[in-house]
Amino acid sequence: MATVEKSSYDALIVGGGIAGIESAINIANNGFKVLLVEKDLTVGGKMIMLSKVFPTLDCGACITTPKISEVARHPNVTILTNTEVKSIDKQDVLYFKVTILQKPRYVDESNCTGCQLCEEACPVVVPDQYQYNMVGRKVAYIPFTIASPRVANIDIDNCILCGACEKVCPTQCIDFSQQEIEHHIVVKTVVIATGFNLFDPVKIPRYGYGSALNVITSMQMERLLAPTRPYNHVIRPSDGKTPDKIAYVLCTGSRDHTVGNPICSQICCMYSIKQAQLLMGALPMADVTIYYINIRSFGKGFEEFYEQAKGMGVNFVKGKIGMITEKENGNLALRYEDINKGTVVEADHDLVVLSVGVIANQEPIGFFPQGDWKNDKFNFSFQKDLLFSSSLSSIEGVFLAGSTTGPMDIPDSILSAGAASMEATRYLRQSTISV
Amino acid sequence: MKKKIGVYICHCGGNISDYVDVEKVRGAAENEEGVFIAKTTMFACADSNQKEMVDDIKDNELDAVVVASCSPKLHEATFQAVTQRAGLNKYNYYHANIREQVSWAHSNDKVGATEKAIQIVKAGIAKVRLSEAIEPLEIQTQQAVLVVGAGVAGMKAAISLAKVGVQVYIIEREHFVGGRISQWDVLCSNDETGKELVTRLFTDISSAKNITLFTGTELVDCAGSKGNFTVKVKITPRYVSDHCDRNELQKAIEVCPVVVPDSFNFNITNRKAIYHNFPSEYPHKPVVDIANCTRCGECEKVCKQIDFSQKEETLELKVGSIVVASGFDPYTPHDGEFGYKISDDVITLPQFKRLVDICDKELVWKNKPVKTVSFIYCVGSRQVDGDNKYCSRYCCTTTIYSAIKAGEKFKGLDFFHFTRGIRTYGKEELLYYQASKDGQIFLQSYEDEPPSVEVKNGKTTVRINDILSLKKEVEVESDLVVLVIGMVPRAESTIGEILKTPRGRDNFFNEIHMKLRPVETVIDGITISGCCQGPKNVVESINSAQSAAIKAYSFVSSETLLVEPIVATVNPELCSWCDACTESCSFDAIQQQEIGDKRVAEINPTICKGCGMCLPVCPTNAIQLKTYGDEEVTRMISVLANEL
Asked: Of A81, A156, A385, B39, which residue is most buried, by most CB within 10 angstroms?
């Protein structure tokens, strides 16, 4: 049975990605008490997993970690990770009753020093979700070196309860008796910053993801290029060979009615061009080809970034890939319509990266038991007054930040978080005035 | 002299350590005089390392710190905050840049890069050895904000600030608010019209007690700094008095004999010299266009409200922060560009939007009914030869949406889109899908083979080698050719010069950092929002406006502000008032003062930016820059020049 704790805050931020972090800092800077809830073991969201970010090629970690550091030590911000929102219930004009469930880590967060001795001692290895299953991790583990909080966690579903971790822990902070904690919280305003999901390319069997070993997703390539990468080199999964003919398949799961996602994901062209540039640096001998329908480099400095990639020798081919077939040597045959020749041709590549699209994270609809939460027709959070104030949701006092409303790149997410925190601050100021 | 210096060398996850032998740099630093500890770290900026630094400083009582990592633009403030958390004055910190200036610049020469990194770190150590604790300056804040521009971005920023209790002054150069959006009819993608959106924003502006709107008003001067700006604005009169009798004013407009092209309708219609020509233009009060007025006096005869005695006024305002929302200009095609000004049937997208709005039952251009409309995309954007390399972002979606809406309003139109690859990003992709399904024709060319326009037998024809059909030559005889023009930075913009806000490569105003500080400029206290920063649609403009507003709020929400004390100071004994320093100062921070009977220079520390321009021009060496004294700089140079 879960224990129950009660508390109150001015604002609840759901989601600890870049939009949630930015919103929390903005609101807390105005003197309001903020609770930031993240369901993962660490804050940082998708952004902290990235290598360098377009179009400036700053390393993703260099932008995310200082913001994380700022939010983590902000006197007005409390962060709960490994914690899920159960319900957000609007009581009257001024208050929301919120129930959240803090899951046990089986590690006393306040005493863990992050020494990783438990990780060394643990005998069980499972696929590492933070490296998108390309390598293994232990069952007692820290998600990655720049995780925040940087403390251990026991993956209890896979734990064999051997006790090896307990024996080596220098601070005796491993505690298998930990229980879930249910927090009952009262807040005045809520910011939803639950982000997006990536399209699962298994849904397009003709692309071979899951069966052809050398077909990977763009997020897996992102990990191969990141500073906290699993290997110190870009290699292909089947045999560890350094690839030298890499293909990008744009619009995998985007602009595609057959998989139920007709919209454009807005970020894939640019992250693919960025990865191509990074690959030209990491593997100077490799050829990189990007197969596209339209290149959508629309933001500030994006078109110039696209031109730069062309100048570096990235090969851009207009054509949608129809089918990917695995060959005996692990290479892939890509069938596509060559728009210049008007015929179907086949190209040989030794590594294929699927530029997977953005899919709505539909969790917020489950938070609101009164059924007054609305999604749009693509299952993103509904924006009540799109042009006048894009962060207003279908419920008064609940605001929307980042890609919960639709695909968005990092700068747009940060600006949308600015808008949400402005509205939330306005709402809090007005409620202070009226009380 | 500092004796316990901590030095941290960052790998930057390989960004540095792939090219610089960070361990060797650490070893070199360790042996420097005064260095107590020297460490390497994977990510110096990560929270775990920041905690370790705080512990190191406290446990070892370090008296100065050097971090060798990225540009100080990115993380100097981060590590200054670390030293402060550990109880150390932040001016005992030095940020050595071994990424932008070393590893990224010399990735082909690891040995040389490592040597250069060692020199830079040693120079940093030499500087902090002499560092002194100084305290930030506290200044009184003007708890008001100036918003420049009353388009949708400016109005939204003003409303957002007013709602949290800030006094706002909003100035607009035109006599009517609403900017470009008031000229637009239906907006994507919720069918709200520009008129409706502007009406709602204007209603909020007029109902807020703490917003003062100045129309016909330009910024002419700005002095001071964050928390304390003094701005001068020039107000041009409307020549119409405040008490407004609509019928009389309407008569005045009718009797006015002067007819000029109406810029609101992008010159496709005409207006009088006294005008209030469109219902979405607020305030609802006409204005006399004094440049074109002949002073014939006809209007005065029928309307008592006309008042030619009104004079231009200059007003001084005191504010703590400035939000710039000065917008963009639509690109003007040069004569002959895709037939512009050569064929009467070639118009621009904004003109087409106004035409669709103005025409009632039938789409008519120059008294001829229109059946076939051709759109030519990327006019003035993504230029191969011109300066505008960027994509203007809004145009693909807006054009397709306009075509769909025009098709709904007027039956039987045929649309041809001559594109460079459609960029209906996000959910707007469905508009492209719908237009294609409706039978609108999309053709495409690469940038090296754009479509061409020529007039043949009185008909305007667009020709393309369409890459979507094996470069087949396609010709479309068109009743109307619409040039899809992009956004360009304001041509006539003194604002940037007055406020000293820098521009980027694309000539739009530049933010400090696209992700870390997307609405701030290098001039503290001045933020940018909307399309003056780069092309945006309405939603993006308003998001950036609200982001700028919350940033501006943080500058003015408390009564006092702390500002950087790295400023120049004058030694009055050495100063002989030659006036060379005042000329060198771009910020007007230096003034003359009298001490006894001696005239000397005095530097206002709240205006001084610490740029150092005045130092070298001073013939008597009377000016010193705090934390960058002669001794500190000489020692750094000596180390870099290998003399020590």
From this structure: A81
Q: How far is it, in rounded angstroms, from Cα B341 to Cα B70?
A: 52
pLDDT single digits (tens) A168-181 = 999 999 999 999 99
Pick from A250, A289, A255: nearest CA to A271: A250
Q: Please give the backbone phi and psi of residue A14, each rounded to the nearest 5 degrees, phi first.
A: -100, 110
**Dist. CA A185–CA A333, nearest whole Å:** 55
- The fraction of chain B above a pLDDT of 70, given in percent, is 99
Residue range B147-160: mean pLDDT, rounded = 98
Mutation choice for A interface testing from B11, B16, B45 by most A CBs within 10 A: B45
- Three-state secondary-structure class, residue B10: strand
Q: Is the dihedral of CA B599, B605, B608, B611 positive or negative?
A: positive
Paired tokens of B325: 């929302």
DSSP state letter for B506 = T
Token representation of residue A328? 């005996």
Interface contact B43-A62, CB threshold 8 A = yes
The identity of residue B557, as a single letter, is S
Q: How many CA atoms lie within 13 A of A28 on its CB side?
A: 23
Give the count of beta carbons closer than 10 Å to the beta carbon of residue A376. 14
pLDDT tens across B233-245, in order? 999 999 998 877 8
Q: Which residues of B touch A384 (CB under 8 A)?
A: none
Give the confidence band of B562 by pLDDT, cuts at 50, 70, 90: confident
Tell me which residue of A290, A283, A289 sits closest to A241, measured CA to CA. Answer: A283
Please state the rounded mean pLDDT for residues B622-626. 94
Hey, is the C-beta of A141 within 8 angstroms of any chain B C-beta? Answer: no
Let me know: does B136 contact B152? Beta carbons within 8 Å: no
* Gap from A367 CA to chain B (nearest CA, Å): 24
Facing residue for B75 by CB, picked from A66, A68, A416: A66
Instruction: Compute the average pLDDT of residues A50-65.
Output: 89
Cα A245–Cα A246–Cα A247 angle in degrees, nearest 5: 125
Within 8 A of B18 by CB-CB distance, chain A residues are: none
| ipTM for the complex shown | 0.95
**Distance of alpha carbon B484 from alpha carbon B353, whole angstroms:** 11
List CB contacts (< 8 A) between B504 and chain A. 300-301
Would you place residue B191 in the very low, low, confident or very high pLDDT band (cuts 50, 70, 90)?
confident
Contact at 8 Å (CB) between B290 and B114?
no
d(CA A390, CA A367): 20
Single-letter amino acid, residue A276: A
Nearest to B485 by CA among B346, B281, B358, B366: B346
pLDDT tens-place string over residues A331-359: 999 999 988 888 999 999 999 999 999 99
Q: What is the pLDDT of residues B424-464, one digit of tens each?
A: 999 999 999 999 999 999 999 988 899 999 998 889 999 99
Q: What's the CA gap between B287 and B177, in Å, rounded?
A: 13
CA distances to B266, B278, B353, B432 from B330, in Å: 10, 20, 13, 23
Give me the DSSP letters along A314-351: -EEEE--EEEEEE-TTS-EEEEEEETTTTEEEEEEESE
Report the distance separating Cα B181 and Cα B356, nearest Å. 15
Question: Would you say how long chain A is, in residues?
Answer: 435
- Cα distance between residue A331 and residue A328, in whole Å: 7
The reply to whether residue B539 touches residue A421, judged by beta carbons under 8 angstroms, is no
Residues in a beta bridge with B306? B240
Phi, then psi, of B459 in degrees rounded to 5: -110, 140
Place of tokens 């960025």: A274
pTM of the model: 0.91
